[in-house]
Amino acid sequence: MSFLEITGLQKSFGANQVVKRFDLSVQKGEFITLLGPSGCGKTTVLRMVAGFETPSAGSIRMDGKEISGLAPNQRNVGMVFQAYALFPNMTVAENIGFGLKIAKKPQPEIDARVKQMLEMIKLPQIADRYPFQLSGGQQQRVALARAIAVRPKILLLDEPLSALDAKIRVSLRDEIRVLQQELGITTLFVTHDQEEALSMSDRIVVMSAGQMEQVGTPFEIYNFPKTRFVSSFVGTLNFLTGAVVDAAAGRFSVDGQEVITSRGLQGASNGETRTLALRPEAVVLGSGGEGRNSLTGRIELVSFLGSIVRIRVRFNENVVSLDTFNNPGAPPPQMGEDVTVSFGRGDLQLLEEAEKVAA
Amino acid sequence: MKKSSVLSWLIILLAISYFIIPLLSTFEFSLRMLRGQYSFEAYRVVFAQAEFQHAFIRSILLALATIVLSIVLVVPAAYLVRLRLPSWRSPVEFVTLLPLVIPAIIIVFGYIRMFNSSSWLPLTDSEWTTDLLLTFGYVVLALPYMYRSVDAGLRAIDVKTLTEAAQSLGASSFTILWQVILPNIRSGVLSGSFIAFAIVIGEFTFASLLNRPVFGTYLQLIGANRAYEPSALAIVAFIITWACMGLLQLVGRSRGARAAR
Amino acid sequence: MLGMAPFVLFALLFLVVPTALLLVGAFFDREGHFTFGNITELFTNPAIVSSFWLSIKISFASALGGAFIGFFVAYAVILGGLPEWMRGAVMTFSGVASNFAGVPLAFAFLATLGRVGLVTVLLRDWLGFNLYSTGFNILSFTGLTLVYLYFQIPLMVLVIAPALDGLKREWREANAVLGGSNFHYWRHIALPILLPSILGATLLLFANAFGAVATAYALTGSSLPIIPIQLFAQIRGDVLSNPNLGYAIAFGMVVITSISSGAYIWLRSYSERWVR
């Protein structure tokens, strides 16, 4: 029996169907991320679980109980907002203890729990400070402590890292994940940042335009995307547009050069124009060897990113991006050079639609 | 929060009654001049009075003079503070807030003391110099609003870059202000002007103590002696104030639309 | 820097210096000797003391009334679930009404609640209720306070609206997920946050009413001797036979309005610090 059971969830605002259909079973202690672009409905789903929006249809069961009819203050969920939402008129300690004060816990118990929470977020010295005296990262950790202090059944996070600087974002997301695992608290996390989703989650739900595109572990989502949306939204992709030479044999022509995909070209007819997807990390410089595809083209752009060197190679119409590691002993190749790149036969994936996916 | 809608409606309806009823009463009263019937007789009578026409036209002229003088004083000052003298910002803003803190009656009291017949600048000696003094006083009353509007308008445009571009094309400071800056802060200037207009039209204290006839003093005089005409004039005053504020909203909204482009 | 000369000269000549001269004059007597006598007389002259007191009472009453009612009106249109367009309409009207003070306002209320005012007459004819037999009179303390509310309430609405806008939706939601009810939200979060703004606005209303003279002059004339009326009479005709006493009265008024306005400005910056 799963801990959180969402069935047939729908939400419309007037004529606008923001969430068309959402089903999910979450096990206790799982970290689920709802990933998608702005407007895909992920935040609306979260707010329905929290109780700030009423579903137009569907049910939400938590720990066996139907909660979609309950007011937010009766659901025992913890929520962390994108804009921190710390109460500015209270100190850090008062903020963290607020939920316990509402529940009329005795003051010594509140103090002990607040102290425990401050140590958990590694900020024991700021108990008496006010939110405006804290940095963004500190405020968000306090918001997290405030949400967890009341021992909620489920933790909801609405793009909590979006308002923070890049460096803080990375360190804080690791902290959140570690904390979540230590406490074993079931968590729903909403973000549009695929790197966050991939690095933190047990499972990811990719959403688009109010619908679920795919549910799976980060490994599954990244390596085996089921729809063109998922493959373009999660990770970066190269697109090779060309003509099918022999669908049965997996032969495909790209700008006059031929590649073979071992994954097959099911559903495609010979001569048809289709697009194959290719992950940049599958591509290496050099002509490769037996059983590998190779393409020859001209280097269009070399970007030195520090530890990574990103190289863009152009074959007539198509462009492929690949990353190599920086090597102090060998400077990167020059723009305008002719170069051969290679990748495995299993690295090409046929995209479902005939048109190339918009970049 | 839907449940508090009922309470909100109640509050608003009560508030509307409190604010509308006096206006309706005044209007109704102003129509009662001819016994037994409603008519605009009170309006006709009052508009026909030479004294009224004199006072009203004077008020309008004073308002226009106030507006022009305010613009001439405030726009260059606000421009310079924003462009070259940022450290002057706080003291200047403090000065522009003074008319809101110091009641008008005290300012005019100061005028009478400082510019009376036995002083170094006897502005109260003749009628036209007193009118000048009155205008200066009105500029002071309108100062907070005019400065704030103009400053907001300046903030919305990139003053520094516009000035440098104009200078590189050979424009003098006057040309820059007149042809580059002023047209671009039009809505800010208009906003301030409408408020200034409303303030001057309705003003009483300054004019009364400086003994100059204006709309406000005429209103008070007629209220002491007549029954129906004061109500008619009160309605006229309200319409004028409303018109100014309405135009203000219009200007403010179009500014927002321009900024969005 | 020379370009600032006109503005500086004007501000000095027609704002700062006249006022300063006036205030300084409070400390001198007729012969030009320095003295605190005028200032002390502010506290000893019964007519002046009672005038100040009357002004303080009316300003206080209209400030409290205006703040209380204005807060609820602002709340109703901003947070109270009313249609969006009503907020714009109320704000526009507040802009007009806060300027509609003085003589026209006095006449409007005379036409409403005066002895032959419309409402007085209607109450008598429709409900058999004789307003003036209860002792009510528009030409009184209560009447003037009622009239002052006409521009105090809109001023409150205009001043408190930004503070109400600053109440983030997330605070209400955070309160809810932590188990708090509507009552908890207002008691622990919203009202504490709003308190400096409300207090500041009330002080602004106080200063606003304290300095007003035209409305009272047109309505109650000299029958209600609030301090601006006293000053008005003094400027007109030196009724106190001591011009320096007039300056002292002006000084007292400025002190009171400065403290009130200053406190408003301080409280406003204090509350802005929280809501970044």
From TrEMBL, chain A:
Broad class of enzyme this protein falls into: translocase
Family from the record: Belongs to the ABC transporter superfamily. Spermidine/putrescine importer (TC 3.A.1.11.1) family.
A single MF term (Gene Ontology): ATP binding
Domain of life: Bacteria
Name of the molecule in the record: Spermidine/putrescine import ATP-binding protein PotA
Species this protein is from: Labrys neptuniae
InterPro entries linked to this entry: AAA+_ATPase, ABC_SmlMolc_Importer, ABC_transporter-like_ATP-bd, ABC_transporter-like_CS, Mo/tungstate-bd_C_term_dom, P-loop_NTPase, PotA-like, Transp-assoc_OB_typ2
Gene3D superfamilies per UniProt: 2.40.50.100, P-loop containing nucleotide triphosphate hydrolases (3.40.50.300)
Stretches assigned to the ABC transporter domain: 4-234
Keywords associated with the record: ATP-binding, Cell membrane, Membrane, Nucleotide-binding, Translocase, Transport
Record carries keyword ATP-binding: yes
UniProtKB/TrEMBL annotation, chain B:
PROSITE patterns (alphabetical): ABC_TM1
Top-rank taxon: Bacteria
Chain ranges passing through the membrane: 7-27, 55-80, 92-112, 132-150, 189-210, 230-251
Entry keyword set: Cell inner membrane, Cell membrane, Membrane, Transmembrane, Transmembrane helix, Transport
Localization, UniProt: Cell inner membrane; Cell membrane
Pfam families: BPD_transp_1 (PF00528)
ABC transmembrane type-1 domain segment(s): 56-251
Record Gene3D superfamilies: MetI-like
Keyword Membrane: yes
Bilayer disposition of the protein: Multi-pass membrane protein
Family: Belongs to the binding-protein-dependent transport system permease family.
PANTHER family in UniProt: INNER MEMBRANE ABC TRANSPORTER PERMEASE PROTEIN YDCV
Protein name according to UniProt: ABC transporter permease
Species, as recorded: Labrys neptuniae
